Amino acid sequence: MEPLDSWYAKTLLLMGSVMIVAIRAPHGQRSRTIPVVHRGQGGIERTLLALAWVAFFLPLLWVFTPWFGFADYPLRPLPLGLGALAVALGLVLFHRSHADLGTNWSITLEVREGHRLVTHGVYRQIRHPMYTALLLHGAGLAVAVPNWVAGPIYLVVMALLVACRLGPEEALMRATFGAEYEAYASRTRRLVPHVW
Ligand code: SAH
């Protein structure tokens, strides 16, 4: 089959990025008004968060500049379709997890005033639906963006961030919610329902 114009992947990338920002913005604004009572952020976490910003914006440079042209390859319909599907699923889950987590959301490891353990909605089956959503989004871009740098960078950084964060985040939740979190953890999986 003929390769497609990379314009399709660029549109997907732009729309996906705008949606991520649009879904998160109101929650970010609201949660800023609630005081933090415990901060679990370390040096690695700060570095990874900075890297996550780079990984979010670098693919946009691929769209708007010729700088990453050396790593381009032809776009095929199947990867574009599969990638778009993963991005769409990721966005739906990203929206649902923000809605369910409400004011308990933070961009980093924090416990806020009046923090409640959320176990309903998309948190009923897995403990980290927002991370699953970001990994789905990243996997979709990795498959659909026909560039060896701009395509996989978000997935790679998100996978690193999630890998380094799950342990400390669950420890923070255990320290905050004790037996309630133990019980919750024993009936749920981390990222993939029924699997892990
Ligand atoms: N790991 C979750 C939440 C990501 S946001 C997910 O992927 O969906 C990170 C913040 O959420 C952390 O600061 C932590 O305090 C909070 N958090 C994580 N799980 C939570 C839960 N089940 N209920 C309430 N807050 C939670």
Topology of this protein?
Elements: H1 7-32, E1 36-39, H2 43-64, H3 77-101, E2 110-112, H4 129-144, H5 153-177, H6 179-186
Antiparallel strand pairs: 1-2
Helix pairs in contact: 1-2, 1-3, 2-5, 3-4, 4-5, 5-6
Bound molecules: S-adenosyl-L-homocysteine.
Q: How would you describe this structure to a colleague?
A:
- The chain is mainly alpha-helical and 196 residues long.
- The protein is 62% helix and 4% strand.
- Strands 1-2 form a two-stranded antiparallel ribbon.
- The longest helix is centred in the first third of the chain and has 26 residues, at 7-32.
- It is elongated, with a radius of gyration of 18 Å.
- Residues 97, 101, 104-106, 109-111, 117-118, 123, 128-131, 169, 173 line the site of S-adenosyl-L-homocysteine.
**Helix/strand/pairing class, anyone?**
mainly alpha
Q: How many strand units?
A: 2
End-to-end gap: 37 Å
What is the chain-wise order of helices and strands?
Answer: HEHHEHHH
Q: What hetero molecules are bound to the protein chains?
A: S-adenosyl-L-homocysteine
**Mean pLDDT, as a whole number?**
94
The low-pLDDT segments are none
As for the CATH topology, it is Four Helix Bundle (Hemerythrin (Met), subunit A)
| CATH top level assignment | Mainly Alpha
Largest sheet: 2 strands, antiparallel
Q: Determine the strand fraction and express it as a percent band.
A: under 5%
Q: What gross morphology would you assign?
A: elongated
Quaternary assembly: single chain
How many helices? The count is 6
For the largest beta sheet, what order do the strands appear in spatially? 1-2
